[in-house]
Amino acid sequence: MRVLAIDTALAACAAAVLDTDHGIVASESLSMVRGHAEALIPLIARVMKQSDMAFRNLGRIAVTTGPGSFTGVRVGLAAARGFAVATGVPVVGVSTLSVYAAPYLAGNGKSPVVATIDARHDHVFLQMFGPGGQTLISPRLAPLSEAVAAASRTPACLVGSAARAIADGLRKDAAPPRAVDARDAPDIVWVAQIGAVTPRAQSGPNPQYLRPPDAQPQNAAQLPRR
Questions:
Q1: Residues 104, 97: contact at Cβ < 8 Å?
Q2: Which of 51, 54, 125, 131 has a 20 to 30 A CA-CA distance from 118?
Q3: Dist CA 71 CA 64 (whole Å)
Q4: Nearest of 111, 94, 125 to residue 188 by alpha carbon
Q5: How many domains does the chain have?
Q6: In 3D, which of 116, 90, 118 has the Cα closest to residue 101?
Q7: Residue 214: inside a domain, yes or no?
Q8: Residues 76-122: pLDDT tens digits?
Q9: Within the chain, what is the greatest distance between any pair of CA atoms?
Q10: 166-172-173-177 Cα dihedral, nearest 10 degrees
């Protein structure tokens, strides 16, 4: 199967084409905090051209659904859905937290993996995985202290943009983490690989925000209706 993977949820704009029989045939990742909407479509065009593949030859499109930035998540989902409508290729969603954890679950399934993303204001998006990828702590918005406590229970692999903050918060007498991988965005290769085996949902992928938007309507400022 051939998979187009898209990620704009965090600090990168990335796309890749995976052929499950031959591996990654094309990929590109640009580090950025803003500007995903302008960069994504030209980037996908370059990746598709490099792969020498037409959209009609794809088996599916995989896109990160968050948690991450509201704008970034929406950009990726909108692009994936647009391509799906135009080409008929199905879309599957992939959690950013699971993508962060995937290489460590695949490489050393015996150690738990604490995946965290900086959510600002001393909070993180948190998910903890156990052997075989089982979820020990479900995806949630949590205080930084809760994530540190989870990482303190047993030596774990700390991954995600908040991994360094979690490691720094461990007590000196705590067992050191197995690994600390604090990259700002997940690896697009794993988005493609997870997307290739993710079951399709009947309704298509939905965003995983895990918190309400920062901008809220100002009800007090609404004008009265006549």
A1: no
A2: 131
A3: 13
A4: 94
A5: 2
A6: 116
A7: no
A8: 999 999 999 999 999 999 999 999 999 999 976 689 999 999 999 99
A9: 66
A10: 40
